[in-house]
């Protein structure tokens, strides 16, 4: 009987997936087992897959739970079942996370975090624009204020956006965009905004790349949004205490003294039921006006 408990078979989309060590605890502080994780991951799937499907996926695996050793997985784990699709980029055979069954298979491998590319498979153009707001301090009470200031700048440019928790310590500003912009153009806008805010609020923001030189300033990371780089997907779990989930927020929520850990594996379902996917409620944005302004500024 003891040996039998080391594996369970679940059936997903017509496929049998062996769940090894289903009672292994992944989040010791919350007592969340691998099977608990898979059940919650399945509920997140309709939303998480939206931002991982047809992209080059990097996962972070924690075979012994979040307090154990971890490693980044870019190449698809082998052996892989026939229902797991892959795509090659620069010699790396990435998972194309496009199904619940593939998600459950990765979850069984203790893939806790999901970090997709910023562009679709076979497409050189960015699929959205994301500005990463990264605190230099582990505990940063000003992070919500900082995100609001970035949002105000975007709003002044008539660019609608949605903030989302990284699930760790930062905030990421997600902007759906019209197709056709390049990564270089998005980087130019990000640099413009980063320079503007770091000059207007020198005691709060920086665009200094080296963390050791940032002191306590909040880093506006416009460089992260680039081919070959990744950020945490909307709705990915994170390997932190309280099992946080990277969660889109309404702008007014940033003024409500929120705690990142309040958005977690066990609260996200009710939130999605009541609010839906906030990102999908914003139409693709035009960036033409700010690009024209930046180009004219360069030419003067």
From TrEMBL:
Q: CDD domains, from UniProt?
A: LigD_Pol_like
**The keyword DNA-binding appears for this protein:** no
Q: Which InterPro entries match?
A: LigD_pol_dom, NHEJ_LigD
What are the residue boundaries of the DNA ligase D polymerase domain, all occurrences included? Answer: 33-278
GO MF, one example: DNA ligase (ATP) activity
Q: Name one Pfam family in it.
A: LigD_Prim-Pol
Q: Which domain of life is it from?
A: Bacteria
Coiled coil segments of this chain: none
On whether Ligase is a keyword of this UniProt record, the answer is yes
Query: Any idea which UniProt keywords this protein has?
Result: Ligase
Q: Under which EC number(s) is this enzyme classified? A: 6.5.1.1
The name on file for this protein is Non-homologous end-joining DNA ligase
């Amino acid at each position: 009987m003891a040996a039998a408990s080391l594996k369970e078979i679940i059936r997903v989309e017509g496929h049998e997936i062996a769940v090894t060590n289903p009672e292994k605890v992944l989040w010791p502080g919350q007592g969340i087992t691998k099977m608990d994780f898979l059940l919650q991951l399945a509920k997140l799937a309709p939303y998480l897959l939206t931002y991982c499907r047809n992209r080059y996926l990097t996962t972070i695996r924690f075979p012994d739970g979040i307090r154990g050793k971890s490693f980044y997985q870019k190449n698809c784990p082998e052996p892989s079942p026939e229902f797991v699709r892959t795509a090659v980029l620069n010699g790396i055979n990435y998972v194309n996370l496009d199904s619940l069954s593939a998600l459950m298979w990765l979850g069984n491998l203790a893939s806790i975090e999901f970090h997709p590319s910023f562009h679709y498979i076979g497409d050189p153009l960015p699929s959205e624009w994301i500005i990463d707001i990264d605190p230099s301090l582990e505990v940063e009470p000003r992070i919500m204020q900082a995100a609001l200031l970035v949002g105000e700048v975007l709003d002044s440019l008539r660019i609608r956006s949605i903030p989302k928790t990284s699930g760790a310590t930062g905030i990421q500003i997600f902007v759906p965009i019209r197709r056709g912009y390049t990564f270089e153009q998005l980087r130019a806008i990000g640099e413009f905004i980063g320079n503007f805010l770091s000059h207007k609020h020198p005691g709060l923001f920086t665009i200094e790349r080296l963390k050791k030189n940032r002191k306590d300033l909040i880093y506006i990371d416009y460089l992260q949004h680039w081919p070959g780089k990744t950020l945490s997907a909307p709705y990915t779990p994170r390997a932190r205490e309280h099992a946080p989930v990277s969660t889109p927020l309404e702008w007014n929520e940033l003024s409500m003294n929120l705690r990142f850990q309040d958005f977690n594996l066990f609260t996200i379902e009710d939130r999605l039921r009541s609010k839906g996917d906030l990102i999908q409620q914003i139409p693709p944005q035009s960036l033409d006006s700010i690009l024209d302004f930046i180009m004219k500024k360069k030419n003067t």
